[in-house]
Amino acid sequence: MQIHTTCRQTRMTPALKRVLEERLAKLERFTAVREAHVVLIAEKYRQIAEIVLKTKGKEFVCREESRDMAASIEGSTEPSGPPGVGSATSAIPSAMAPPAEFPSAAMRVVSIA
Question: At 10, which CATH number?
Answer without folding.
Answer: 3.30.160.100
